[in-house]
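ESCALATION

Customer reports they have been waiting on this structure for their group meeting. Please prioritize. Original submission:
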Amino acid sequence: MLTQGSLCTQQHASSKASHTVVFLRTNLRASRQTSHTRHMSVRCQSVSTPDRCYVGIDFGTSGARAMVIDDKGKLIAETRQTYGDDKSASARAPSWKRALFGLLEDIPSELRSTVASIAIDGTSSTCMLMDDETGELLTTPLMYNEACPEAAALVGLFAPAGHTVTAATSTLSKLVQWQQEGAIPTSGTPRLSHQADWLAFLLHQVQALLC
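Update from on-call: job pushed to the front of the queue and completed.
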């Protein structure tokens, strides 16, 4: 599924196409179970810890996975988590946040201290409105496959025929629906955010995440 302080010297939110990360399979697997299922796998080819390593985190529909590689693209560690049993819309963002920090916690501490960058990737068109200063969510996230047909009809009035934004599941259609519902605040600092952008905000804790 991986194709978006002191932990990292540099972090990046990314789409599936904007980052190339090499992921390998490992035969050495150990797992532990919690209320949110986790699986940890570590491969150590040498006793030394790399000077720099890189983390790729993929948020899928039912769970998230992180992989750690070195400068040569060699897999060092892998961990994954499910989102838990609560499938309600209100549980989406909390489960993503819990998975994000759970995955990072699972990475061995000796590797965490050498992480040079993090790439986060999520499901396309999964989005929400957030406060640009605090990261607080202003709407419940809408998933990639949730359709807004009435909003899409409005988008179709000005968007080129056949363009991807005219799809009922597009991010623009979701934004127009929020506008029609009056969900976009007229004051403050609301920002349209995709899943990976919001998760990266939690790591950065700074403004101007989205490019």
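Sent to customer with the following note: Residues 1-35, 42-47, 206-211 have pLDDT under 50 and may be disordered.
Escalation resolved.
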